[in-house]
Amino acid sequence: MMVTKQEILEILENYDKDKLAIATVCSHSSLQIFDGARKEGFRTIGICINAPPKFYDAFPKAKPDEFFTVKDYKEIISKTDELARKNAIIIPHGSFVEYLGAANFNKLHLPTFGNRRVLEWESDRDMSRMWLEAAGIKMPRQIKNPEDIDSPMMVKYYGAKGGMGFFVVKNYSDFQKRINPAEKYTIQEFVLGTRYYMHYFYSPIKHEGYALSKGTLELLGIDRRVESNADEIFRIGSPTELAEAEIYPTFVVTGNLPLIVRESLLPRVFEMGEQVVEKSLELFGGMVGPFCLETVVTDTLELKVFEISARIVAGTNLFISGSPYADLVDEGLSTGRRIAREIKTARDMDLLSEVIS
């Protein structure tokens, strides 16, 4: 059962607000989270399995002040009292939620940045589509019956992360060859265009900037994913030759590239972010902090959203020293630092209840 907001506020009531610590799992975007927290004056705690990862020694500015070791990620649940005594505020990221599991994360008795209720809407592909479409967002066409496949379609298994479990099919026969019937999946149109991953930040407590019905919206960066063999595979043969050899592109994310979008599209980029936030306020009380709209920009300059990530994404790691967009908010601002700054501002304004759950 999900921990209640009231339970979290009671835990937070016993914290020493002058000694808050930023804590997250040592993975995904932890380097910039720790670096940003330190720049905002917070102590940092890195949660890790068995022994502290050695590579943090190579990055002294991003090495946590303290490592908190567990035998496995599920053990975090039984050690929440220890972390609470350290005044820990948990920062969720994709790996943290994936390793612990959404259900277990929602049971975590520790103050957590953001609104946990978003996990239910984000992790279920049907619910996230309902959210986005209700917000007026254009999305790729989706079909329910695989026998209706008559053009390139992207098949995605539920819970697939980082592009793992994605594949493209062109017809029903192709689908039958590649599908795992034991897995739950969705089928959506494969949209030709350039992929842009928009990094937003929503603050319910900030009043200056791009104003929403409550709070403000920021754009902190844009990236593109480098996906396993998908970007290189056609160097070794034509699509027909590859299919005959049963060699298919895979979409596992292995890295990220920085991007900027043509300036004339920025009004639409902000409108999409605004629509998604406003609908989240209506549906589940609003998401807080960083989120990413994963989009395709077509040759007619239409933007279609194929997925949403409702927390910090790894593509923001490109911009630890700022991005062309974040620099126009505050020079050198990373998403990790922006999270820490939101917590700091909320603490100083006695509004922590607005940004944690």
Automatic annotation (TrEMBL):
Cofactor: Mn(2+); Mg(2+)
Record InterPro entries: ATP-grasp, ATP_grasp_subdomain_1, IMP_biosynth_PurP, IMP_biosynth_PurP_C, IMP_biosynth_PurP_N, PreATP-grasp_dom_sf
Function: Catalyzes the ATP- and formate-dependent formylation of 5-aminoimidazole-4-carboxamide-1-beta-d-ribofuranosyl 5'-monophosphate (AICAR) to 5-formaminoimidazole-4-carboxamide-1-beta-d-ribofuranosyl 5'-monophosphate (FAICAR) in the absence of folates.
Protein name: 5-formaminoimidazole-4-carboxamide-1-(beta)-D-ribofuranosyl 5'-monophosphate synthetase
EC number of the protein: 6.3.4.23
BP GO terms, sorted: 'de novo' IMP biosynthetic process
Species of the source: Candidatus Methanoperedens nitratireducens
PROSITE patterns: ATP_GRASP
